[in-house]
Design a protein that fits this description.
Helix content is about 35%, strand content about 20%. It is of the alpha+beta class. The chain folds into four domains: about 90 residues, no CATH class; about 200 residues, Acid-sensing ion channels like fold; about 100 residues, no CATH class; about 80 residues, Orthogonal Bundle (Helix Hairpins), CATH 1.10.287. Helix 1 packs across helix 2. The two termini are about 60 Å apart. It comes from Sterrhoptilus dennistouni. InterPro entries: ENaC, ENaC_chordates, ENaC_CS. One of its GO terms (cellular component) is sodium channel complex.
Length: about 650
Amino acid sequence: LKRTLPVRGPQAPTLSELMRWYCLNTNTHGCRRIVVSRGRLRRLLWIVLTLSAVGLILWQCAELLMNYYSASVSVTVQFQKLPFPAVTICNINPYKYSAMKEYLSELDKETKKALETFYGFSEGKSKVRRSVDDWNSTGSDFFQHIPLLKVEDFSRTATDLHTGQKRKIEGSVFHKDSSIVNSGDSNDIIGFQLCDANNSSDCALYTFSSGVNAIQEWYKLHYMNIMAQIPLETKEKLSYSADDLLLTCFFDGLSCDKRHFTRFHHPLHGNCYTFNSGDNGTILSTSTGGSEYGLQVVLYIDEAEYNPFLVTSSGAKIIVHDQNEYPFIEDIGTEIEPAAATSIGMHFTRSRKLSKPYSDCTETGADIPVENLYNKSYSLQICLHSCFQKAMVDSCGCAQYAQPLPAGAEYCNYKKNPNWMYCYYRLHEKFVKEQLGCQQICKDACSFKEWALTTSIAQWPSIVSEDWMLRVLSWDKGQKLNKKLNKTDLANLMVFYKDLNERFISENPANTLVILLSNFGGQLGLWMSCSVVCVIEIVEVFFIDSLSIVLRRQWQKAKKWWRNRQQGGLGKAPQAGDPERQGHDNPVCIDEDLPTFTTALRLPLPQNSPLPRTPPPNYSTLHLETAFTEQLPDTLELDQH
């Protein structure tokens, strides 16, 4: 039936007939004009216009979908009483040098010998180079673990400053600075070599642009190794107390003292003190802007207690942060200059970003597969440092000293972990090159607070007030200080709000579902005079009906193949003239709808059958019978004529 009946609509036997039926009956005008237009030129014109309209619709709808997940930024400014942030203050020198001498005496001695041998000078002596034989007689465990080398013009040959022997440099060479500056002899640079303890041939040479950088980096490696073996309680005693660091304190015009500061121990900066930490459940606030209503402290730097090889600058470092944030003083801290008054004005900003699918940020960090080692609210820096520390423990078997200690791990030292320095440098190299995977795992926080700082510096104390101020401050220190204060040992710090304007930056969805549907409808109506009904019609015809026709044809082919296979197995080949393959006798069409009266008249006749002839009429049936039993009198006369 499907081959002979002129079926139209969704029951069309072929896709071409379905498309023709759709073009004649659809509500979109362009498709209908393609079919009913006369002339090839006009039909071609309508095809081009219709396809162009479809292309424009697809382009505009794609733009709408791409912009659906975009966000608009709004800035709100509020004027209100603001909470004062936490202010963490650290001395640049982490530990008192006089208290650390018993731990660092051997390291300092070897460092001085290295300076004397390479540069030919020592404390209180003339510039005469020390012979290598004299140095070898003393012995040195530090140079056995990390030998200092003098490399000649980037060649693969280096001289060991400890033994005086020349060695061939194997492995990689890493230049820690972008430009190379001569350090002593011409064309000579200094560096140190790290080797795998399990494979002495696997080594890496780290060179520096200056001997100062090389000596200081070499010193820091041994320094961290020594500090990792000292208990935390002992290190807190070796560092500065609140009475040592703080001389005077004022906040919001009122006096404050060490009770308003909370101590926490930083691995690289020793004892640090946080003002307004909120640990007691109270967060101070200020209702007036200006330097008179902020935090004012005078710090005692005590430059005489500085380690000459560990730090090369004097002063303090501060960081302004939220009470729930960890103070990364080593990364984003602001240095405070001694013998000066540093004023830091603040502007407070709260930011809020939209999470997925608008941006790749995290709300609380719970979806990040990295353990938070800092016990503070999530941030990108916390994630990166925690990720590196975990990789350090997994790869090297111990934890890096500058970061918090994971549960069940211990800090690295080359007595228990002789390979940790080489492992640390290799791991850090991968981290910087983003090969460790931390940058891919860690995400920005969706909400955060920020204090924009403006710093200004003035000379303090002034020349005319220096004498009496230093006398009074020395008297205030009382028995805790046995000498007169020097202005280079002091630093004046002021932290305050420049104004009480709180800026709130937030992201809002640029589009909603209602706006998206409205834009879709506008595009469809503009280019195709189409509505939602047309869209449903397109889905029905191009997807449901087309798929139904394709599946029906495949099913019929499968049944035909199966029938032919069965007939072939019985030894009877199908003939082209078999009645079973013709018209209404075709079994393939049994599952089709029965023909209607009109369509049945159009069925083809069976082959070898005589044409049907119309029988002669039965004239007796043509006799008209009246509906009346008797004839009317006035019609009798007409009937006789």
